[in-house]
Write a structure and sequence with these properties.
The complex is a heterodimer of chains A (about 240) and B (about 240). Chain A is an all-alpha fold and about 240 residues long. In chain A, about 80% of the residues lie in helices and about 0% in strands. The model of chain A has no long low-confidence stretch (mean pLDDT about 95). In chain B, strand 1 (about 15-25) and strand 2 (about 25-35) form a beta hairpin. Chain B has 9 helices and 9 strands. In chain B, the strands form 2 sheets. Chain B has a 6-stranded mixed beta sheet with strand order 5-6-7-3-8-9, with helices on both faces. The chains are: A mainly alpha (about 240), B alpha/beta (about 240). At the A-B interface, helix 5 and helix 6 of A face strand 5 and helix 3 of B. Bound molecules: adenosine-5'-triphosphate and magnesium ion (MG). Adenosine-5'-triphosphate (ATP) binds near residues 23, 24, 28, 51 and 53 of chain B. The site of magnesium ion (MG) has 4 residues of chain B, from helix 1.
Amino acid sequence: MQDGGSAFALAFGLLASADADLLEIIGLSLRVSLTALLASCLIGLPLGALVATCRFPGRSAVMVLMNALMGLPPVVVGLIVYLQLSRTGPLGWMQLLYTPTAMIIAQTILITPIIAALSRQVLEDLHTEYSEQFRSLNVPWRSEIAALLWDGRFTLMTVALAGFGRSIAEVGAVIIVGGNIDHLTRVMTTAIALETSKGDLPLALALGLVLLVIALAVNALVFVMRQAAAKFAYA
Amino acid sequence: MPECTAKTNALMPLEVSGLNLDLAGQLLIDGIDLTISEPGVTVIMGYNGAGKSLLLRLLHGLISQTSGTILWAGQTQSNAVRQRQAMVFQSPVLLRRSVSANIDFALKVRGQLDAAWRDELLELVGLADLSARPARLLSGGEQQRLSLARALSCRPDVLLLDEPTANLDPASVAVIEDILKSACAEGVKIIFVTHDIGQAKRLGDEIVFLHQGKVAEQSAAEAFFTHPTSQVAQAYLEGRIVV
Ligand SMILES: Nc1ncnc2c1ncn2[C@@H]1O[C@H](COP(=O)(O)OP(=O)(O)OP(=O)(O)O)[C@@H](O)[C@H]1O
Ligand SMILES: [Mg+2]
């Protein structure tokens, strides 16, 4: 076991030499979380738009539920997906457990409520502002949704970034359904958990640094979006 | 050019009978009977809170009445009827897009995208130089002019205007009044809320005075300003507060 100082030096060495294992792990992390984000946006944005613009019985209950699901504990999502995908589970025949696909499914379930609930809020505020004018212009429902999504695009991108931030950093769900298998399902967070417990600090530290940089980049992007929105008075 | 350039007005007369609007237990529009059959400009006046904006919303079908009927040339409100009307709201609602994109949006909804006509309108309201600017960065008066240009873009038969010149400088007011006069000359019926007595005198052919959700008076403009028949209208014109 190394002391902190030399572990840091080794970690920077790994980063500087673009260590193959390291790159593989980072690559898989990005692939899993970005795919999950895409799937979540495809489900969450239309859902958010629907709830934002339509009045139907049980709408308040749906909104409360969406907000509550934003706080889903990752391990619970992992457990539920595990039970579905395990060999004895209803979807066991698909043999997805311990694959990147299983991880994508778990993260999609985890962040879809975030995308849906936050975009619902954004789109509903816009809808409240625009609805009389749109009614006056006889804007059909589909064009209205399209206009809301377009005019809310900067804020919606910050919503997507929030979802991405949560999925790239979570460990509970992916470790249960992915299993942290080397060269197959090992992502940054699960690798950090494992390597730290094994005492291999340089790899853990190097991955931790990459995660921090990603978090920083996400927040910088959010900032840039806000600036752009304000500049064009889209806010 | 798109069709709906109307010389004869397809939505006149407007017949309102027994119109009530009850919101949160308050009768805000209280049994309005009103017939507007003359072409030209009908000005709706009244104290703050009289129900002028609510009446325009009801006429345009943006809110539904509690009871009573509104007939435009004998038809109840529908998309087809509303298609022939345009409204300018008391506070303009503009999309988070450029000035020209705001007009394009209204044209596109009707499948009548026409860049030349859009530019002509922007020229008309004096916004041609600002066409690429984000609409929400315009000044209050510029936003009102843009919202009027958007309303005109669809060549409506009826224009419903809620204090469209409230934030404008005198030169812009004159420009807008000229635009309204020429629209009127082309046969567009204008129903128009204002607190500006001078403007009502300049533009109005007929005045409807609302008070506490009721029509207190409906008279020809000249008669209204020389001998208002209702006490409230008299008080209003003299600048007195009535409770
Ligand atoms: N959604 C609503 N719920 C309850 N009351 C309302 C609502 N909208 C308007 N009112 C009330 O109805 C009354 C008439 O409102 P309206 O906006 O029509 O007034 P107005 O004549 O246009 O006044 P102003 O000259 O200030 O524009 C006001 O007292 C207002 O408070
Ligand atoms: Mg008003």
